[in-house]
Design brief:
alpha+beta; four-stranded antiparallel sheet; 13 strands; 18% helix; 48% strand
Length: 162
Amino acid sequence: MKNFRLPKVLLLLLGMTFALCANAQSNYKLVVWEKGGAVVGNYELTYTPKVTFTETEMIITTSLADVYYYGLPNMWKLTYESVPTSVNNILADNNAMQFTGDAIVFPALEAGSNIAVYGANGVMVLNKTVSSAGEYAFPISSLSQGVYMVNVNGKTYKIVKK
C-alpha cells in the first residue's frame, strides 16, 4: 500500500487544482494519461470533471452524470490543456477549406469572395476574387515549400506546403 500513497496524494492535489480552475477556464480540458504515454481520457472543463480517489482507482465524474474509472497502478499523469477552439470551429464549418491533391478546395463560396494567400513574412503571394458562387479549387502547386496564411472572407487558415 505504501507504493500508492505518494502518487495518490499528488493526484489528489492535481485533481483539486483542476477542479478549482474548471469554472474559470471553459476552453480547457483535463487529460488523463496512462503509463506508456497513451491518452485514456479527455474532459472539457465546461462539463466540470470532478476527480476523486479510492485506494486503487481514480474516478472522474462529469456534470453530464458520466462516471469513468482508472486503475491507479496504470496512471501516469493528469494534464490541463487548452482546447483548440479555432480547429473545432473549422471542423464544424461545412464550408471550410479542404485539401485535394495540390489544391485547396472551398466547397461553397459566394460570388465576390476574396481569397488571399500570405507567406510567413506577411507578404501577399496570391490574390483571387471568385466570380461565381459554388465550389472553388485554389491551386497551390506554384507555391514553394513553407508556411502560409490563407484568408477567405474574414476567416484565416494556416497551411504548410511540403
